[in-house]
Amino acid sequence: MGGESLFTTARLLCRRWIPQDLEAIYAIYSDEEGARWVDDGRPIRREECQRWMEVTQANYRTRGYGMFVIVERSTGGIAGCCGLVHPGGQSEPEVKYAFLRRHWGKGYASEIVPALLEYGRGEHGMRRVIATVARQNQASRRVLLKSGLRFVKELETEEGTLVYEWISSPGA
User: Fold this and answer.
1) N- to C-terminal Cα separation, the chain
2) What's the maximum distance between 2 C-alpha atoms anywhere in the chain?
3) Which CATH class is domain 5-167?
4) pTM (whole model) above 0.85
5) CA–CA distance, 19 with 8 (Å, rounded to integer)
6) pLDDT in tens, 30-63
């Protein structure tokens, strides 16, 4: 499995990326169907994936967090990735997640996102986290709402990007 667990849910374990994860991360983000909802909608190239691993390691050193691997507790296999990131240097942390296609529809996103938000609050003092999602990505929109985020606004982009936010409950 590799790496120390940051947090767990009933079925999943979340940990930092390690070099041995490169192939699994590449498989997640090079899938054409899954990539249509990520960044520019283009599958990642292997060199970009390697660079992203380096950026993630730098984020661990500077922020203490970044992208993480999601592991199925029952099998020890990688199911996906999630994280708290600052794309383009934005000030607020943003929740991200993606899964290998064979793990779609298992409810893993609805399980991991609330745990990730709680990790951000508990371990890093995050009080507000945003998420961006394409208007057409109904599945992710449902996950965000089930995870306690609320719709805030729509950005003026070609694909119609929606912004959701999570605000930590007082006293939590």
Assistant:
1) 31
2) 44
3) alpha beta
4) yes
5) 21
6) 887 766 666 666 778 889 999 999 999 999 999 9
Helices (H), 10-83: 22-29, 32-35, 46-62
Four-residue CA torsion sign, 60, 109, 134, 148:
negative
Q: DSSP readout, 65-109? A: --EEEEEETTT--EEEEEEEE-GGG-SS-EEEEEE-GGGTTSSHH
Question: Among residues 80, 165, 158, which one has the least CA distance to residue 131?
Answer: 165
Alpha-carbon separation of residue 162 from 68, 76, 98, 137 (angstroms): 23, 34, 17, 10
At 47, list the tokens: 């060199």
What does the alpha-carbon distance between residue 130 and residue 96 come to, in Å, rounded to a whole number? 9
**Structural domain spans, the chain:** 5-167
pLDDT at 77: 96
Structure tokens at 163: 């912004």
